[in-house]
Amino acid sequence: MSGNIIKNGLPEEKAKTFWKKLNFGILFDVDGVIARGSTPIKAAIKGMQKIIGPDGKLTVPTSFVTNACNRSSDKAKQISEWLGTEIKASQVIHAQSPLTVFRRYHDKRVLVIGQGKLKEMATDLGFQCICTIEEIRDAFPKLDMVDHANRKKLAENHYEDSKDFQQVEAIVIFGEPNRWETNLQLLVDLLVTDGYPTMAPNGISPNTIPVLACNMDLVFMAEACMPRFGNGSFLVCLESLYKKITGYELEYEGLIGKPSEITFRYAEHCITEEAKAMNISEPITKLYFIGYVHVP
């Protein structure tokens, strides 16, 4: 856009003034919009060249919003390679990114669910006392009985529950995990025992452990010809099992990620900071979001 205006005859100085008075920002979805899986969409990459100036930099305050579960620095590097311009980690907003403002949980014993560099991602967000489902499974080896190999292992050897296990005080679900059956079983165990599954509860009551879930996408678009199950599908399974077993609805402390309001409020903050870094003098009054919607 900047380059096109200059080429069409607008004097360079006026062009610079025009861009400094920009009052809008752009948010791009990633999956199904810029790329499918790890493969960039050629037409999208070509279209985005219109907001890259002659100096190879973005001319409009821009952020990328994705519900994928990975580190912002890794995703920024990937998008930079696709576009051929530098994208900073601060311009990439993951489903979990707004958790930086949930400071009341940062010093709690938090179980994080998902895949990839879970502890690193949680640390990036400010969490200080982190555990994973694998650590829960190791601490309480008799709980994961869906795994027949674990049944055999327990039959052949004697295992005791950990005496040093710290009570789980909050659950953060970054994204869909591997081994859904193990995660579902242990999550329900923790929810009905208030985070300390050493003995069966005397009675069932609504969950008291705060649950923060990121990414409600039922499906997402990758390389396959049809949408694939997303974290929203995992949450549906968890909610259904919890309701069937306890009779209560699973209560969330927060649902985060697009299209939640908190994520777009956080994106608004990120766009404003990006505009300041670009020396844009006008306040940002408009946000344009370019996304993918799956219609069955």
Q: Count the beta strands.
A: 13
Structural class: alpha/beta
Secondary-structure element string: HHEEEHEHEEHEHHEHEEEHEHE
Strand content range? 15-25%
Q: What does the main sheet amount to? A: 5 strands, parallel
Give the termini distance in whole angstroms: 35 Å
Mean pLDDT: 87
Radius of gyration computed on alpha carbons: 23 Å
Oligomer: single chain
Q: What is the global morphology?
A: elongated
Task: Describe the structure in brief.
With 296 residues, the chain is an alpha/beta fold. The chain contains ten helices and 13 strands. The strands form four sheets. Strands 7-6-8-9-12 form a five-stranded parallel beta sheet. Strands 5-4-1-13 form a four-stranded parallel beta sheet.
Q: What would you say this structure looks like, in words?
A:
This protein is of the alpha/beta class and 296 residues long. It is 35% helix and 16% strand. The protein is built from 10 helices and 13 strands. The strands form 4 sheets. The protein has a 5-stranded parallel sheet with strand order 7-6-8-9-12. Strands 5-4-1-13 form a 4-stranded parallel sheet. β4 (62-66), α4 and β5 (92-94) form a beta-alpha-beta unit. α8 packs across α9 (231-246). It is elongated. 33% of the residues are buried.
